[in-house]
Amino acid sequence: MIKVNGDELDWREGMTVQDVLDEKKFSFPLVSVWINGEPVQRRGEYAITPVPDGVEIEVIHMMSGG
Amino acid sequence: MEKMKTLAEWKYTPAVSRLGYTRETLYVGLGNRDGDYRFEKRPVSDEMIDKFIGGRGFGLRLLWDAVKPETKWNDPENEIVISGGPICGITQYPGAGKCYSVFLSPLTEQTYNSNAGGYFAPFLKFSGFDAFELQGKADREVIVFVDGDNGTVQVLESNITEDKNAYAVTECLHEYFANDEKDRKNISVVSSGQAAAHSFWGCMNFSFYDPRRKVARLKQAGRGGGGTVLRDKGVLALVVKMSHVTGTSVGPANPDALSKLGGKLHKEIRDFDDVQCQMRTIGTAHLNEIMNDYDLLPVHNYKFGRHDDIGNIHSTEYKKRFAQGMPDGCWYGCSLSCAKATPPFKLTTGPWKGREVIVDGPEYETAAGLGSNVGIFDPEWTIEANFYADHYGIDTISLGTGTAFVCECYELGLINRENTGGLELKFGNKSDLMELIHRIAAGTDEFARIVSLGTRKMKKIFSEKYGADRKTMEDIAMEGQGLEASEYRCQESIAQWGGYFLTLKGPQHDEAWLIFMDMVNKQLPTYEDKAEALFYFPNFRLWFSLVGLCKLPWNDIEPEDNHTKYKGIEAAKVPEHVQNYVEIYNAVTGKNVVKEDLIAMSEKVYNFERIFNLRMGKGKRADHNCPNRGLGPVFEDEWNARPEYFDGKLKEAGIEPGGLSVREKIARLQTHRRGQWEQLVDKVYARRGWNRNGIPTLETVRRLGIDYPDVVELLEKNLKPEDSFA
Question: Strands B356-357 and A31-35, how do they pair?
Answer without folding.
Answer: unpaired
